Amino acid sequence: MSIRPDPVARKYARALLEVARDQELIAAVSESLERVISLLDGLPELEVALKHPRVGQEEKLQLLDQVARDALPLVRRLLELLLRKGRWGRLRAVVSEFERLRADLRGEVLAEVTVAHPVGRAEEEEIQRALSRLFARRVTIRTSVDPGMIGGLRVVLGDRIIDNTVVRRLQIMRRRLKERPLEVEVN
């Protein structure tokens, strides 16, 4: 299965990376973006308000000031640009693409790993080593939690998806049972 990267997000991410590289701020921009995403994860109603069409532009800019209070000026400008252009909903895609491009610069690949339950540092390192062996490249992982998966993990690496979740396995089992029902012998 393959997924297509968002071309608009890629354009913003490339521009951000070029400016960050020119200013020697790539790592700092990455950290600043991570803090913004963490803040939004903790306040989902704030993100809803920033996307909502009935919230006025000035109100959104005031909300953005709260979100980006501690962000680097370069990140603040990106956030404001996305908001003004009506592309706030693409923020997470821009951040993901920025991190993918950053990993490329270091000769690495970035894998988005989604798990059902939070994992510790040792488990993250084990997943990272396994993916590095599988893809024969240094793999950097970013983990997120989705309790709806029940168990297992899903890996998105570039345009490849490895879905080893309980939900996916149940879907496969359901499909196979529909294709070929179980035959039960009655005596």
Q: How would you explain this protein's 3D organization?
A:
This protein is α+β, with helices and mostly antiparallel strands and 187 residues long. The protein folds into two domains: 7-98, N-terminal domain of the delta subunit of the F1F0-ATP synthase (Peroxidase, domain 1, Orthogonal Bundle), CATH 1.10.520.20; 107-179, Glutaredoxin (3-Layer(aba) Sandwich), CATH 3.40.30. The protein contains eight helices and four strands, in the order H-H-H-H-H-H-E-H-E-E-E-H. It has helices at residues 7-22, 26-42, 44-51, 57-67, 73-84, 91-105, 121-135, 166-179, and strands at 109-115, 139-145, 152-157, 160-165. A four-stranded mixed beta sheet has the order 2-1-3-4. Strand 1 (109-115), helix 7 (121-135) and strand 2 (139-145) form a beta-alpha-beta unit. The relative contact order is 0.12. The model has no long low-confidence stretch (mean pLDDT 90).
Which secondary structure elements does this structure contain, and how are they paired or packed?
Layout (H helix, E strand, L loop, with lengths): L6 H16 L3 H17 L1 H8 L5 H11 L5 H12 L6 H15 L3 E7 L5 H15 L3 E7 L6 E6 L2 E6 H14 L8
Parallel strand pairs: 1-2
Antiparallel strand pairs: 1-3, 3-4
Helix pairs in contact: 1-6, 2-6, 4-5
- In quaternary terms, these chains amount to single chain
Measured between the Cα atoms of the first and last residue, the distance is: 44 Å
Total strands: the figure is 4
Tally of individual domains: 2
Helix content: 55-70%
Largest sheet strand order: 2-1-3-4
Main sheet: strands, sense, barrel: 4 strands, mixed
